[in-house]
Design the sequence.
């Protein structure tokens, strides 16, 4: 297997982008990533594009072909990758495998979603496709509702409080306010979260990631080549993915995501590292409770201790393990198919020392964690400064 490196990254501004369409967003991110890669004659020979629901959201299928066309990459092989909110992370893994195996020599990995062109109920219905349509959505469950069940159980089993969940949102809005690409640029306090309207009790508006338009891209090539053309390549030293039941009621536990635990174990084995070696992580905080479960399931904190750790500032920019320096899904926004790639963009900037106000000092190794649905897919990458 060849070693794989990220040589270029770029993203569009995340937010409610009324004046830009699906293709504008990916062209923006793709152009920035390709310029950043400074390819010097290397030919891009593959595109993997993560997008969850362009059909229901903008009436467009066959997104792989559309994106290659509009990015000016025809006639290269272009593949759409779908794994709900983990579409971007799984696309990154496809790109990693394509380079590692020798099938491709230079690929663009993209993620994109245009979510604000349809009404709120239509977005809820499109996102609902990430769960079990027959057993959950048909019975009236929404994604905030599904994560609310997990939050209630976590509160019951571990004494997690609404204030502690709110502290995830406060931290992630603080980080987002230091990221010019983020949807929300304003710091908030605990009261803002607690006083926001209830979406699915105990989750309130500010416990939820928003509805977002956006795209992110990365250019990958073999490390050996990358070291010749690129000043600061970032090596992907582990890529792991795992699955679980689609419906929540079939799980043994509501307070953990087993796919995350399995993928984390594989990723740490592949990288020959442990949690102690990780300097920062971008984790899947689609709801505040999701970040608490993620930092526990990844092994940064013991089960039941993630909420207190967040409240105590251990996951802040200056904490022992900074989590979601980009602002996460909560503050930076969550254009579902783009999120997994955006996480890799943020880690790349951090490892290159380009994260400005939110830069983590001496960052050498970072982790990304991207989840599909309520945890039926989890994909993890570990990256290091090459
Ligand atoms: N966090 C903070 N502020 C938010 C927000 C969020 N998640 N969602 C919306 N807002 C803000 C908007 O910016 C707007 O502010 P403004 O009045 O200052 O412009 C205001 O709240 C109203 O926005 P609106 O779009 O009308 O909100 P809404 O009530 O229709 O939607 C949610 C709020 C929480 C229901 C919606 O963001 C949502 O469904 N989020 C979850 C998405 C999801 O399930 N993703 C998949 C995860 S698996």
Sequence:
């Amino acid at each position: 297997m060849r070693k794989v490196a990220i040589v270029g990254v770029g993203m569009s501004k995340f937010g409610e982008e009324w004046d830009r369409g699906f293709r504008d967003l990916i062209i923006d991110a793709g152009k920035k990533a390709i310029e950043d890669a400074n390819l010097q004659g290397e030919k891009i020979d593959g595109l993997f594009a993560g997008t969850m629901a362009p059909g229901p959201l903008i009436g467009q299928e066959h997104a792989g072909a559309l994106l290659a066309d509009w990015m000016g990459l025809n006639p290269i092989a272009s593949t759409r990758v779908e794994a709900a909110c983990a579409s971007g992370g799984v696309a990154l893994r496809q790109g990693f495998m394509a380079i590692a195996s020798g099938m491709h020599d230079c690929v663009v990995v993209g993620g994109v979603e245009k979510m604000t062109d349809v009404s709120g109920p239509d977005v809820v219905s499109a996102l609902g496709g990430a769960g079990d349509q027959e057993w959950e959505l048909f019975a009236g469950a929404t994604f905030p509702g599904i994560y609310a069940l997990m939050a209630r159980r976590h509160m019951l089993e571990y004494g997690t409080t609404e204030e502690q969940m709110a502290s995830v949102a406060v931290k992630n809005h603080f980080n987002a306010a230091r990221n010019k690409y983020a949807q929300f640029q304003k710091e908030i306090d605990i009261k803002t979260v607690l006083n926001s309207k209830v979406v699915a009790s105990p989750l309130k508006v500010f416990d939820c990631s928003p509805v977002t338009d956006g795209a992110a891209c990365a250019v990958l090539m073999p490390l050996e080549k990358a070291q010749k053309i690129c000043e600061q390549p970032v090596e992907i030293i582990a890529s792991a993915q795992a699955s679980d039941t689609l419906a929540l009621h079939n799980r043994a536990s509501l307070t953990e995501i087993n796919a995350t635990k399995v993928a984390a174990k594989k990723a740490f084995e592949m990288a020959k590292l442990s949690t102690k070696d990780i300097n920062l992580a971008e984790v899947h905080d689609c709801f505040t409770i999701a970040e608490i479960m993620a930092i526990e399931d990844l092994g940064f904190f013991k089960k039941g201790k993630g909420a207190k750790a967040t409240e105590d500032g251990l996951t802040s920019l200056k904490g022992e393990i900074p989590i979601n320096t980009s602002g996460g899904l909560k503050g930076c926004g969550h254009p579902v198919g783009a999120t997994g790639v955006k996480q890799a963009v943020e880690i790349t900037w951090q490892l290159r020392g380009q994260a400005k106000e939110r830069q983590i000092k001496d960052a050498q190794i970072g982790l990304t964690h991207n989840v599909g649905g309520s945890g039926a897919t989890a994909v993890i990458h570990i990256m290091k400064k090459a």
